[in-house]
Amino acid sequence: MASPRGKPAIGVKAPFPGFIEPALASSIEKVPSGARWIHEIKFDGYRVQVHLANQAVTIFTRRGHDWTKRFRKVADDAWHIRAGSAIIDGEIVVPAADGSTDFSVLQNELKGKSTSIVLVAFEPKLLAEIEYRAKTAEGKLRHPFFKGLREDL
Known about the structure:
Layout: E1 46-53, E2 56-61, H1 72-77, E3 86-93, H2 103-111, E4 118-127, E5 130-131
Antiparallel strand pairs: 1-2, 1-3, 3-4, 4-5
């Protein structure tokens, strides 16, 4: 896209997107190996997207249902994220002392005050109104915001 003067546009402000269809885990018989594969731990919880926009937090399930009220603790915790707008892909879990997760414990926790639930964030989908889908050949995020923050990004 070019600007009116014919120079390439550096950035284009776009409306904040709604729910983004997530890539879901799938069963396979053999785990792929090699330097080109990146694996994530499958937690036993609810896959969600946390949207921060227009001074509001919305939490969507993997099917796009608004469960913000059901995950009130995570919504309240999301206010600590320093971003004008963001979409964070993650899993809501109740972690055990050994680091494991148990879906039945999460379901029981949601019947009460839900004080032990946390969001395990996978990666930001959108941060500060800039998309981060472009990655290097190694699968690392390209944007300079991430440089030096985490070695694995």
